[in-house]
Specification:
By secondary structure, this protein is of the alpha/beta class. It is built from 13 helices and 17 strands. The protein has two domains: 211 residues, UDP-N-acetylmuramoyl-L-alanine:D-glutamate ligase (3-Layer(aba) Sandwich); 135 residues, Protein-Tyrosine Phosphatase, Chain A (Alpha-Beta Complex). The chain has a nine-stranded mixed beta sheet, with helices on both faces. A six-stranded mixed beta sheet has the order 12-13-17-14-15-16, with helices on both faces.
Length: 452
């Protein structure tokens, strides 16, 4: 039995009761139980996380998917794993995860906690936990009203890293923000040595275009997307770090999967898009750093299930709907690139909200390259959300056929129209609270079995 004081015991009990009530009565609340527990003991995480080997996953895009990939790899190896799979990644959400899995008379030795953490909350978690590994997937402009620019976000993460100098860092080497960090931590990098094109000109709306040391514009041997790629500064000669784990070849890029060579291992990633190749590469790197064999990692990545709005597939009266979470220009453009892989007719549902968790400023949609959709075989264009008219204007301006627009705010009416879509394949591109709320509605109607 792990020794904890009376305040912690009361916090765990109150947290577990709150978890039960929120799951069965409110159909949600994966963060609130942690809030309750912290009222009893502000340092409760220090006690309930003891014994776990912890891996923290942070960054702008791909946290939830990468966390899921890593968790599945470790489970496939036979380890006991806990994870905050719903994406409740604020400090109190992390506390909720550990409380939910806490057992008074069971040791956590030999178990792993694969935990997704919001960028601004890393410092709160590392105050109480020293992880085995911290990985940063990427940094893009995201919720400017909350985070500010990417350099501000990086500094927020580094505030947490400096608390744990013995933690290994596994970083995306293609992101110029992560090179030559002023920290003592052992650092290894992953990235791409091969892309599908030879693009070297950075997009005008890309992030981190200027050298973080001398402010000169970066140049690239190639760009994967946004500001990621094989960068170098022609002025001060800062360049991409040496990669330990790399994509050496992209063998196949399909609408529902990708096949790549990672170092010398052929890996099929059962989720589509270039950004999911990055997620899979990150998971591969962490698995290898924790001494998991290639076959186990590759087999797990090939069987990765999509869930909780991250390319999650559901059936709505025979219609195959894929929910894709979109929250900033970089991620949205990658989602659109996935749509561009389709050759058969399909329909789309765009859902745009402006709640706090989405970012209250929706002007970022004008930095998304919706124009690339204008020549695709899209039949019905459904539009919903609290800012549905902003989205409709943006899509019309992008050249999409406004005669195909079906604008509907009510979920019941929207779903009925989706059922009558002229195509069997529908892509749902939704911001965070739009995804959460529509999933709840679909769950209430029986289309989604597992809400959380």
């Amino acid at each position: 039995m792990i020794k904890i004081n009376i305040k912690s015991i009361l916090g765990v009990l109150a947290g577990k009761l709150t978890i039960f009530l929120t799951k069965h009565l409110l159909k949600g609340g994966s963060t609130f139980p942690g809030t309750v527990a912290l009222k009893f003991d502000k340092q409760i995480l220090n006690k309930i996380a003891k014994g776990y080997k912890v891996i923290l996953v942070t960054g702008t895009n791909g946290k939830t998917t990468t966390t899921s990939m890593i968790s599945n790899i470790f489970k496939a190896k036979g380890y006991r794993v806990i994870t905050n799979n719903t994406g409740a990644n604020l400090f109190r959400g992390v506390v909720s995860c550990f409380i939910d899995n806490y057992r008074f008379f069971k040791s956590n030795e030999g178990s792993y906690a694969i935990i997704e953490v919001d960028e601004a909350n890393v410092k709160f978690v590392t105050k109480y936990i020293e992880p085995e590994i911290i990985t940063i997937t990427n940094l893009f402009r995201d919720q400017l009203d909350r985070y500010g620019e990417v350099y501000t976000t990086l500094n927020k993460i580094l505030e947490g890293i400096i608390k744990v100098p013995n933690t290994k860092l596994v970083l995306n080497g293609d992101d110029s923000l992560f090179g030559k960090l002023d920290v003592p931590n052992k650092t290894i990098y992953y990235g791409f040595n091969k892309t599908l094109n030879d693009e070297t000109a950075i997009d005008i709306n890309a992030d981190a275009k200027f050298c973080k040391f001398c402010k000169s514009p970066y140049q690239y041997n190639f760009i994967t997307y946004n500001h990621l790629g094989d960068f170098y500064c022609p002025n001060c000669h800062y360049k991409r770090a040496k990669l330990k784990y790399a994509i050496e070849d992209i063998l196949n890029l399909a609408p529902d999967h990708s096949t790549v060579m990672i170092n010398e291992t052929k890996v099929t990633i059962s989720q589509s898009g270039l950004y999911n190749i990055y997620n899979g590469l990150c998971a591969y790197a962490i698995g290898k750093e924790m001494n998991i064999d290639n076959n186990c990692i590759a087999n797990s990545l090939g069987k990765q299930d999509s869930s909780f709005g991250r390319q999650e597939e559901i059936l709505i009266e025979g219609k195959k709907a894929k929910i894709i979470l979109v929250k900033n220009p970089a991620g949205y453009n990658q989602a659109l690139d996935t749509l561009c892989l389709n050759t058969e007719n399909f329909s789309t549902l765009f859902m745009l909200n402006d709640n706090y968790a989405d970012g209250t400023d929706v002007s970022w949609i004008w930095d998304v390259d919706f124009e690339k959709l204008s020549n695709l075989p899209i039949k019905d264009i459904f539009i919903s959300g609290t800012r549905l008219y902003d989205m409709a204007v943006r899509l019309k301006t992008a050249g999409l056929n406004s005669d195909s627009f079906i604008v509907e705010s009510g979920y019941e009416e929207l779903t009925e129209k989706v059922k009558n879509s002229s195509t069997d394949r529908i892509y749902i591109l939704a911001t965070y609270t739009a995804m959460i709320n529509y999933r709840k509605y679909l769950h209430s109607k029986g289309y989604i079995k597992k809400l959380w």
